[in-house]
Amino acid sequence: MAQDATSRIKELRRAFQDTERKRAELQGRFNQLMEQLEHEYNIKTLIEAEKLAEQLANDLKNKTAELDEAMGKLEAMKA
Q1: pLDDT tens readout for residues 16-72
Q2: CA 45 → CA 29, 57, 62, distances in Å?
Q3: Eight-class DSSP state of 79
Q4: pLDDT digits (tens, 9 = 90+) for 64-74
Q5: Which of 59, 28, 54, 58 is nearest to 43 (CA)?
Q6: Nearest-10 crossing angle of helices 2-41, 46-78
Q7: What is the Cα 70 distance to its own chain's centre?
Q8: Residue 48, Cβ neighbours under 10 Å: how many?
Q9: CB of 41 within 8 A of CB of 33?
Q10: Which phi and psi angles does 63 have, rounded to 5°?
Q11: Cβ distance 54 to 66 under 8 Å?
Q12: Which letter does DSSP use for residue 45 in this model?
């Protein structure tokens, strides 16, 4: 019984250490991405990043609509 408890504790310790290592890796990656956002877009917070992502998505939507309209006009000119 004591052996089972010792094995379980060791197993839990390994799982905790693995989780802690993964957390540290993810935190490091997060920090890198935030530094990149600050360097490339002068963004310092996640809220600013979300606003930029929304703005870029809207810009893409608008540009796609403009392109579709231009293609439609081009097709009409061919006919």
Answers
A1: 999 999 999 999 999 999 999 999 999 999 999 999 999 999 999 999 999 999 999
A2: 15, 19, 26
A3: -
A4: 999 999 999 98
A5: 54
A6: 60
A7: 33
A8: 14
A9: no
A10: -65, -35
A11: no
A12: S
User: 9 is written with which tokens?
Assistant: 């504790």
Size of the chain, expressed as the number of residues it contains: 79
Q: Which residue has the tokens 């963004």?
A: 43
Q: Which residue has the tokens 């905790």?
A: 16
Tokens 């703005």, residue? 55
- Token reading at 12: 């839990």
Task: Give residue for tokens 């000119």.
Answer: 77
d(CA 16, CA 24): 12
Smallest CA-to-CA distance from 53 within 67, 68, 32, 37 is with 37
